[in-house]
C-alpha cells in the first residue's frame, strides 16, 4: 500500500498534489502515501465484485449504488481520505466539502486482499472504516484462495458478526443490501492453480 511518505499536507494541498501528479494517495491527517498498482487478479476481482453488486442491486430494484476504486472515501472522524476497492452507498451521496470526488457515507465497503495490504485491511483500516456511522458491512476478498470474509455490524455498537465463505459452490450473503453473490461469479476468470490450505 505505501510506496513512500511525503511531508505534512493540508487537505487542500493533498488534493492539489493528486490533481497535479495524476497519482492516487491516501491522506492520513496530514501525511500522504502513494498507492502502488495491483495485480491483474486484483483488478479482475474488483471488476467482478462491482459487476455483481450492480447487477444484484439492479435486479431487486434498489436505489443503492456501487462505486469503483476511482472514488475517494472521506473518513471525517479521523481526517482521512482513502480508496476502497469498492463501496456501496444507499440514499443520497454525502460528499466532502473540500473534495467533490470524495464520499463519506458508504453502507458497505469491499477490499481485495494482497500480501502487502492484508494486515492493514484487517487491522487499522477496518478500525478507521468502523468510524463511519453508516457502515454496516465490510467484505474482504482473497486473491490466492477462494475465500471471502464478511463482517456485518450488529446493532448500534461496535459489534460485528463474521461470516466466512470458502469454495466456488458458496453464496455470499450481504445482509446490508439483502442480496447474494455466487462465489463462482465473483471469481470468474480468476486462475488459482493451487489454493493455499
Task: Give a quick precis of the structure.
With about 200 residues, the protein is of the alpha+beta class. Helices cover about 25% and strands about 30% of the residues.
Structure description:
There is one protein chain. By secondary structure, the chain is an alpha+beta fold. Helices cover 23% and strands 29% of the residues. The protein has 2 domains: 37 residues, no CATH class; 138 residues, Alpha-Beta Complex (tt1808, chain A). The strands form 3 sheets. A 6-stranded mixed β-sheet has the order 3-6-8-9-10-11. A 5-stranded mixed β-sheet has the order 2-1-5-4-7, covered by helices on one side. It has a two-stranded antiparallel ribbon with strand order 12-13. The longest helix is centred in the first third of the chain and has 20 residues. The chain is globular, with a radius of gyration of 17 Å. It starts with 10 loop residues before the first helix and ends in an 11-residue tail after the last helix.
